[in-house]
């Protein structure tokens, strides 16, 4: 069995996979380290049996201990012995340019994760905490790191370099890295099979993937390799997101910091946590709330318009980068569940062959297939909805490496 761990700054998500890729159990620990761990809650699901437990979680080690107790519980557990866990796969946000694929964790890999914490100060330290906790509680069990940034490292220099003095890149690693790579990799893999079934050879495929959730990013993928992506050195760049501003004139940062008397750290928080859908709409960071308020709240409609306009703009830009487009893929919470957003995001792009079939688009979300087409029959390009499964990709990579 493979245990997949995703440690956030104040959470620990997990999923236990059998070798046949079915899920035995999954869950989340919330409010880890928040207020000293007071108010922590474990939500555990094992074969439809759901358990909730309140317990202090002052660190990720305590949270992981509670997860292990739930997995091995005599009444509700799914394994009898920790020896049944063959390996642990970890989601790690930032691996920099040095890591281009998933790797078994050793001290060198730990040093890379620590070194990139300067560029991912919220995520990488939490990922390290999860790895250290597993080392203590699951000694001797192999651990694998699956990096958000790895899939994007096929970008050419003209796509990942910024227009700054070159020595800044050499000395400080300032460049575009991209994120959500595991999600983009999974859905592009499914799209490859769907396009191949339609007669487009994998080496020729030009795919634009749209990961739209609370965090949003897009990638231009040619022949299975990323040639560009919207997120940059950090996850702040690119599309409008739940609380992130996305693309912004750099001079705005200097101007606002001066006018609002904000420190660099406060300015960073302003752009990452108070902007995006929340900041523009004044309603919520949740797309469902913003869409519900749009008919009567102009600011909410502005937020929707900015959100979908940027997606359309990047589809056009990436079609140029790819020399055309064979498919646009929507995934993640918004991409999979918001037909209105999908329709608005490709509206006016009929000249590129992107035409949505309203009946297909508005049909209920499917659970019987890995992905489905919502485009008009016979259109020159396809519009696909593919539910992402990052945990499955982490489990697959982990199994492959230990085998």
Tell me what the structure shows.
The chain is α/β, with parallel strands linked by helices and 403 residues long. It folds into two domains: 2-147, ATPase, nucleotide binding domain (Nucleotidyltransferase, domain 5); 199-390, ATPase, nucleotide binding domain (Nucleotidyltransferase, domain 5, 2-Layer Sandwich), CATH 3.30.420. The chain contains 15 helices and 14 strands. The strands form two sheets. An eight-stranded mixed beta sheet has the order 5-4-3-2-1-6-8-7, with helices on both faces. Strand 2 (11-17) and strand 3 form a beta hairpin. Helix 1 (60-71) crosses helix 3 (123-137), helix 10 packs across helix 11 and helix 11 crosses helix 13. The longest helix is centred in the last third of the chain and has 25 residues, at 298-322. The model has no long low-confidence stretch (mean pLDDT 93).
Task: Please describe the topology of this protein.
Elements: E1 2-7, E2 11-17, E3 23-30, E4 41-46, E5 49-54, H1 60-71, E6 87-92, E7 103-104, H2 107-115, H3 123-137, E8 143-147, H4 157-160, H5 166-172, H6 181-197, E9 206-212, E10 216-222, E11 225-229, H7 250-259, H8 264-273, H9 276-281, H10 287-293, H11 298-322, E12 327-331, H12 332-337, H13 339-346, H14 358-362, E13 372-373, E14 382-385, H15 390-402
Parallel strand pairs: 1-6, 6-8, 9-12, 12-14
Antiparallel strand pairs: 1-2, 2-3, 3-4, 4-5, 7-8, 9-10, 10-11, 13-14
Helix pairs in contact: 1-3, 10-11, 11-13
């Amino acid at each position: 069995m493979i245990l997949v761990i995703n440690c956030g700054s104040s959470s620990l998500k997990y999923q236990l996979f059998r070798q046949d890729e079915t899920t035995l159990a999954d869950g989340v620990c919330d409010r880890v380290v928040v207020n000293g761990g007071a108010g922590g809650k474990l939500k555990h699901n094992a074969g439809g049996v759901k358990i909730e437990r309140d317990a202090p979680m002052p660190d990720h080690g305590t949270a992981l201990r509670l997860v292990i107790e739930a997995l091995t519980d005599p009444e509700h557990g799914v394994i009898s012995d920790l020896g049944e866990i063959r390996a642990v796969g970890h989601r790690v946000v930032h691996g920099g340019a040095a890591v281009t694929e998933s790797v078994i964790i050793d001290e060198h890999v730990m040093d890379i994760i620590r070194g990139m914490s300067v560029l991912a100060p919220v995520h990488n330290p939490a990922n390290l905490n999860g790895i250290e906790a597993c080392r203590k509680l699951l000694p001797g069990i192999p651990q694998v790191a699956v990096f958000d940034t790895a899939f994007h490292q096929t970008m050419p220099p003209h796509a990942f370099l910024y227009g700054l003095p070159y020595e800044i890149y050499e000395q400080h690693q300032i460049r575009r890295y991209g994120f959500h790579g595991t999600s983009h990799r999974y859905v592009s893999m499914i799209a490859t099979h769907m396009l191949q079934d339609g007669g487009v050879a994998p080496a020729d495929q030009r795919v634009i993937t749209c990961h739209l959730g609370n965090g949003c990013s897009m990638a231009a993928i040619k022949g299975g390799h990323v040639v560009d992506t919207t997120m940059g050195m950090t996850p702040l760049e690119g599309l409008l997101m739940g609380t992130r501003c996305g693309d912004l004139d750099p001079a705005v940062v200097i101007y606002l910091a001066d006018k609002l008397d904000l420190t660099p750290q406060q300015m960073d928080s302003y752009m990452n946590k108070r902007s995006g859908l929340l900041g523009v709409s004044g309603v919520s960071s949740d797309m469902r709330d913003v869409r519900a308020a749009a008919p009567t709240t102009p600011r909410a409609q502005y937020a929707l318009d900015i959100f979908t306009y940027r997606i359309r703009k990047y589809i056009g830009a990436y079609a140029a980068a790819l020399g055309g487009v064979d498919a646009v893929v929507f995934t993640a919470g918004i991409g999979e569940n918001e037909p209105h957003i999908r329709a608005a995001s490709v509206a006016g792009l009929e000249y590129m062959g992107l035409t949505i079939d309203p009946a297909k688009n508005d049909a209920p979300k499917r659970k019987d297939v890995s992905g489905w087409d919502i485009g008009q029959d016979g259109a020159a390009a396809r519009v696909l909805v593919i539910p992402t499964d990052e945990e499955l990709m982490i489990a697959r990579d982990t199994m492959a490496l230990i085998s």
